[in-house]
Amino acid sequence: MDEFESIRRYWLPLGEPPCDGLVRGIGDDCSELSIPPGQNLLQSIDTLVSGTHFPADIHPVDLGWRAMAVSASDLAACGAKPWNVLLALTLPTPDQSWLAGFARGLGESSRLYGLPVVGGDTTRGPLTITLQVQGLCPPGQSLTRSGARPGDLICVSGTLGDAGEALRWLGSPGSSAAAVSAVCQRFLRPTPRLSLGMALRQKATACIDVSDGLLADLGHILAASQVGANLDLAALPLSQPLKTLAGTRALELGLTAGDDYELCFTWPERAGNPDQLCRDGIPISVIGVIESQPGVRFSNPPDGWEAPKNLGYQHFTA
Fold it and tell me: Which of 162, 187, 152, 234 is nearest to 70 (CA)?
């Protein structure tokens, strides 16, 4: 099967239903879209490399789902409504079984999150997946990292650390424990908090998705906003499966492990209880407060606890 047959068989169906404003989709050198009136275009691009961002033996259906979900999470962090996506796929071989599974997972998440594929490219080489997502937001309403102010509450959605613990268990033969299944599902099928992101427009003062670890990603907000933070360690939302599997390591995973794709945002205290933002049954936890003094401080540490030296994942560092 050649490149063009793979496009016809696997990628053309992912353009349905088409997004609003689509003039031309897959089949020309460029896709062409008309941006709806009264909307700004938000774009983000993510590259996932086998062995770096996902295990080489991950099931292709899960990989397709995960690739779309982690890319959509950037739209959630900016409060954007999903619009469409471009796909660039590099494959060692055109394995039809693998392609069918990957296209199935990608298509399921594409339809769920409202991100039809409008174009892309397929090449030969080491397995690499690049998705460029595009979203829409009214002018002046997108979320950024730079608006946090002293006194703002620091909030996160869902729970943290599960996907980091999953890396110990993915591919483990014979493991059928419910806790293992729960954390592995958080890695394989992350959920971008798109409805929450849109609900935070003109309310949250800053926002980011937790992809590299809470401390690392909150650090981006602190740097962009030129503020500091005090985190209440007793308030960090850790799931029971994580506590069961990780024990005393659970807190460090909650602070430093990536791949959870929850939203971390700052909320002006005068705006009331952020629980009002709960979407799809996903809880919101207040885990700290923004302070004027730079740096991060910790409240209510457990006995004998030491602050982690590793603040989260970074490319090109040991």
Answer: 187
* Pairwise CA distance, residues 213 & 259, whole Å: 7
Q: What percent of the chain stands above pLDDT 70?
A: 94
**Distance from C-alpha of 267 to C-alpha of 203, rounded to nearest angstrom:** 7
Tell whether residue 145 is among the known ligand binding residues.
Answer: yes
> Is 74 annotated to bind ligand?
yes
Q: pTM for the complete prediction?
A: 0.91
Give Cα 279 distance to the centre of its chain.
16
Domains along the chain with CATH numbers: 3-137 (3.30.1330.10), 153-299 (3.90.650.10)
**73 annotated as a binding-site residue:** no
Check the annotation: does 120 bind a ligand: yes
46 appears as a binding residue in the annotation = yes
**Interior CA angle at 18 toward 16 and 22, to 5°?**
150
Please give the single-letter amino acid code of residue 87: L
To the question of whether residue 211 is assigned a binding role by annotation, the answer is yes
Instruction: Tell me if 209 is assigned to a ligand binding site.
Output: yes
DSSP code of 256?
Answer: H
- The answer to the question of whether 20 is labelled as a binding residue is no
What token pair was written down for 290?
A: 């923004």
Q: pLDDT class for 176, splitting at 50, 70, 90?
A: low
Residues in the chain: 318
44 is in an annotated binding site: yes
